[in-house]
Amino acid sequence: MENDVKITIGIVLVVVTFAAMLLFAQMHPILAKTKQIYEAYFDLGIVLSLAFIATFLAILAAKAYRNTEIPRLAYVAGAFSLYALRMYLTFFNMLSGPHHWLADSAVHIMDLGILALFFIGVLSK
Question: What is the pTM of this model?
Fold first, then answer.
């Protein structure tokens, strides 16, 4: 029964994220008539979708670690959590308009951390 719940939550999450993408895409005629604004809102929807999916995967990995105590899953959960944080920061950075506050170096450092966590998770016993 628990697998059915996970599958249902996953399907709902995917539907909600695609609905968010469509919502941002549909805001175009209301806010402005330029193609750049439309693309910006579509990009916002994609980034928000990635953040939701990464959060869901981080929660699943953390629950799996708690149930099995396999150290690899802790690194995987950490990597997904860091990726979710990166996507949420990117989302809010994109909302801030032309004055971005998130430095590219911070994004690259988070990417390096994500890869390091996955690498340690793969190599750990």
Answer: 0.70
Query: What number of other Cβ atoms are within 10 A of residue 38's Cβ?
Result: 18
Helix runs in the chain, H state only? 2-26, 28-31, 35-68, 71-95, 104-123
* Distance in angstroms (rounded) separating the CA atoms of residues 67 and 65: 5
- DSSP 8-state secondary structure symbol assigned to residue 97: T
Contact 97, 88 (CB under 8 A): no
**Residue 4 has which token pair?**
């059915």
As given in the structure block, the two tokens for residue 88 are: 């949420």
Helix, strand or coil for residue 124? coil
Q: Is 103 exposed, middle or buried (0-12, 13-18, 19+ CB in 10 A)?
A: exposed
124 — phi, psi (to 5°)? Answer: -75, 155
How many beta carbons lie within 10 A of that of residue 8, not counting itself?
Answer: 10
| Span 1-37, pLDDT tens digits | 466 666 677 767 777 776 666 666 555 554 445 555 5
- Residue 27, classed as helix, strand or coil, is coil
